[in-house]
Structures are given as structure tokens and as C-alpha cells.
């Protein structure tokens, strides 16, 4: 029964199990302070305190990835553009593909960068923010060798990992300039943005452009150059993408971005065929109502306008054009000299 008292053997068994859980030796007649601390600690009860729970949440490396559909389209465009530019630069057979796109804390990525390394800080001019790109050392040495005229492909196992010389760093800067140019073109359908190489760092800690806990997009691009494999990591903090976040959240298929070119052409053609009525206003004047009521057939109205004066063309209540009055083939004509509608639009802007 639940209310029956426990025997000494049962209590001893429970005590031994509890002591084993908290790593306390009950064979000793006396407990020292460390044993007491373990008995009274949180893990002895099996429950986490609120402070412990909050610390686990704050220190969690899991980042919720807000899916940005248009960013996938941008990366697809980048793969194509970067591949074309690299082929032109290196005159080599190569392939570029997307290896993975995920979310990561910026500090976690920096800690994972192997040494020696060369971290490129890219400046997003219009957004006034930065992102980082890291090129795999295997890809760096392969690209440098090809740019210097070599074609001998070394095995990855025998590849010497060393710091780059000043000449090699300039070549890497050239590669990253191509990288940033392709990235700028890839973002063109979403926003006019220019990426450029701000600087290169050999120490990843000097490339901390954001807080270590900042959520970031991590895109890895795999590159194969003449049977040699490497990759480029691009890390963009979510804060950098905030100016175009609403655009990146939209669901568009392909690169037309929701525009129906057929309907656009039809709409433009129909507008150009639309007929409008234009009224030529030779003069305007203000007169008393009694004078207007006294007009009758045969009354002469002086317009105070010369034969070669100016006149306006109106469509409804909107003035569109103005010009000089004249004659053409025995009829009154107006030679257009000014577009009033465009001038008023510029003033309102």
C-alpha cells in the first residue's frame, strides 16, 4: 500500500541510489563540505533553476532560420554569374554550385575558421553594413597557381598550409573583387547594391563585424577547378539584410519577379491607341455675369489677344500643351512649344 512505511532495507537502497546519482560515498562515516554541496546542488534534485534555463537558452547555438525565398533566387543567380566571371578570369574549366545555406551565430562561424586563413570583409555600400567571405585554402592555392600560369595539380594530402605572400594576397584580393562584383549583380533584381572588398584579415577575430551572438545567414559555395575542390563561405548578418527583408520574403518564381511582360505590352499598346479630346483655349477673361447675360448673336467679344499670340491645349480640366497661334492651309493652327504637364510634374516632385 502507498501508506505503508518503508523498511530499513528499502530506505538504504534509495539512499544508495541517490548517493550514486550525486557521486557521494556513503561508506564514510562523515561527509565533508564537497559531499554536502553535491547533495544540495541543483543536479541532485534533477531540476534546473530558472537562471540555469535562461543561461541554456542564451548560450544555445541553435538559430531559427527565417526562410527568405528571394535570397535563394539571389544565390542561384550568384552561382551562375560567379562561375562565368571566374572562367573569364582564370581561363580554366570550373563549376560553381551551392553546397548549403543555413543560419548560424556570427561568433560560432568565426571560431570555426581554420588557421592560417584570409578573411575578406565586404562592404555593402548602400546598406552601410558589412559581411564576410572566407575562401578555402585549397581553393586559394589552386587559383593562385592558375593565375600565375601553373597547371600542376597537387594532392590535398601533400598541400602545404602556409601564410600567403604579398603577391598571393593581391591575387586573392582580385578574386574577391570578382566575387563581390558577382554578388552585386545577383542582388540587382531585389535592390541596387554595390559590394566591394573593404579589407583582408589573417586573424578571424579582427573580422568581427557583428556581435558574436548575431544571427547570420551562412552560404557555402562549392567550387571545382580542374578536378580540385574547394569552397567559399559567405556570412551575412540578418541586420545587414534588414533594408530589403520585405522584398526577400516575397514568393516569386524565376527572374521575372512577378511581372507579366505580355500583359505589360498589351496594356501599353492599348494606352497608346486611346483617343482623348483636346480643347484649344485661345484666351481667358473675367467679366460680370450681367455682361455675359447681355450677349446675343452678332455681339463682338474682344479677347485682347493678337493673331500670333499663345494658346493652351486642355484635356478636361488639365492643361497639357501650349504654343503660338497661326494658320495652316487656311485654318487656325497651334504650334506646340511647351509641355505644361511635364513641367508641372517636375515642380510637384
Please provide a written account of the structure:
The chain has 349 residues and is of the alpha+beta class. The protein folds into three domains: 15-58, no CATH class; 69-248, CheC-like (Chemotaxis protein chec); 276-348, SpoA-like (Surface presentation of antigens (SPOA)). 36% of the residues lie in helices and 23% in strands. The strands form two sheets. The chain has a six-stranded antiparallel beta sheet. A four-stranded antiparallel beta sheet has the order 7-8-9-10. α5 crosses α8 and α7 packs across α8. The chain is elongated and about 120 Å long. The N and C termini lie far apart (88 Å). Mean pLDDT is 76; it is low at 42-47.
What are its keywords?
3 domains, Surface presentation of antigens (SPOA), 36% helix, 10 strands, 6-stranded antiparallel beta sheet, single chain, alpha+beta, 349 residues, Chemotaxis protein chec, 4-stranded antiparallel beta sheet
Summarize the structure.
This protein has 349 residues and is α+β, with helices and mostly antiparallel strands. It has 12 helices and 10 strands.
Q: What's the topology here?
A:
Layout: H1 8-21, H2 33-40, H3 42-45, H4 50-58, H5 69-90, E1 94-105, H6 106-112, E2 119-124, E3 129-135, H7 137-147, H8 166-186, E4 195-201, E5 215-225, E6 228-237, H9 245-248, H10 261-273, E7 279-281, H11 289-293, E8 310-315, E9 318-328, E10 331-339, H12 340-348
Antiparallel strand pairs: 1-5, 2-3, 2-4, 3-6, 5-6, 7-8, 8-9, 9-10
Helix pairs in contact: 5-8, 7-8
CATH architect. name of the largest domain: 3-Layer(aba) Sandwich
- Rg over CA atoms: 38 Å
> What structural class do helix, strand and pairing data support?
alpha+beta
Total number of β-strand segments? 10
Could you give me the name of the CATH homologous superfamily of the largest domain? Answer: CheC-like
Total helical elements: 12
- Shape by Cα distribution: elongated
Helix content: 25-40%
CATH classification class of the largest domain: Alpha Beta
Distance from N terminus to C terminus (CA atoms, Å) equals: 88 Å
Amino acid at each position: 500500500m502507498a501508506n505503508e512505511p518503508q523498511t530499513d532495507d528499502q530506505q538504504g537502497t534509495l539512499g544508495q541510489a541517490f548517493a550514486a546519482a550525486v557521486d557521494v560515498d556513503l561508506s564514510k562515516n562523515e561527509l565533508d563540505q564537497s559531499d554536502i554541496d553535491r547533495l544540495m546542488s541543483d543536479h541532485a534534485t534533477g531540476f534546473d533553476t530558472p537562471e540555469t534555463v535562461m543561461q541554456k537558452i542564451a548560450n544555445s547555438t541553435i538559430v531559427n532560420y527565417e526562410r527568405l525565398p528571394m535570397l535563394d533566387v539571389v544565390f542561384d543567380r550568384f552561382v551562375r554569374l560567379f562561375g562565368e566571371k571566374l572562367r573569364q578570369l582564370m581561363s580554366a574549366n570550373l563549376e560553381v554550385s551551392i553546397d548549403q545555406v543555413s543560419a548560424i551565430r556570427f561568433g560560432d562561424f568565426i571560431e570555426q575558421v581554420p588557421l592560417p586563413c584570409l578573411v575578406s570583409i565586404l562592404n555593402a555600400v548602400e546598406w552601410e553594413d558589412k559581411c564576410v567571405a572566407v575562401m578555402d585554402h585549397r581553393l586559394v592555392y589552386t587559383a593562385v597557381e592558375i593565375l600565375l600560369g601553373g597547371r600542376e595539380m597537387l594532392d590535398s594530402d601533400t598541400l602545404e598550409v602556409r601564410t600567403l605572400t604579398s603577391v598571393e594576397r593581391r591575387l586573392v584580393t582580385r578574386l574577391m573583387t570578382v566575387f563581390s562584383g558577382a554578388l552585386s549583380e545577383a542582388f540587382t533584381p531585389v535592390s541596387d547594391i554595390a559590394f566591394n572588398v573593404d579589407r583582408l584579415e589573417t586573424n578571424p577575430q579582427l573580422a568581427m563585424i557583428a556581435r558574436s551572438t548575431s544571427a547570420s545567414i551562412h552560404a557555402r559555395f562549392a567550387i571545382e577547378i580542374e578536378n580540385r575542390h574547394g569552397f567559399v563561405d559567405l556570412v551575412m548578418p540578418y541586420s545587414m539584410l534588414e533594408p530589403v527583408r520585405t522584398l526577400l520574403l516575397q514568393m516569386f518564381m524565376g527572374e521575372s519577379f512577378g511581372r507579366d511582360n505580355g500583359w505589360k505590352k498589351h496594356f501599353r499598346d492599348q494606352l497608346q491607341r486611346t483617343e482623348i479630346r483636346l480643347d484649344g483655349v485661345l484666351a481667358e477673361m473675367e467679366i460680370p455675369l450681367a455682361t455675359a447675360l447681355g450677349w446675343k448673336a452678332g455681339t463682338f467679344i474682344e479677347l485682347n489677344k493678337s493673331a500670333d499670340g499663345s494658346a493652351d491645349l486642355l484635356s478636361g480640366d488639365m492643361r497639357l500643351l501650349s504654343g503660338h497661334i497661326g494658320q495652316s492651309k487656311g485654318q487656325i493652327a497651334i504650334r506646340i512649344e511647351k509641355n505644361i504637364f511635364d513641367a508641372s510634374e517636375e515642380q510637384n516632385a
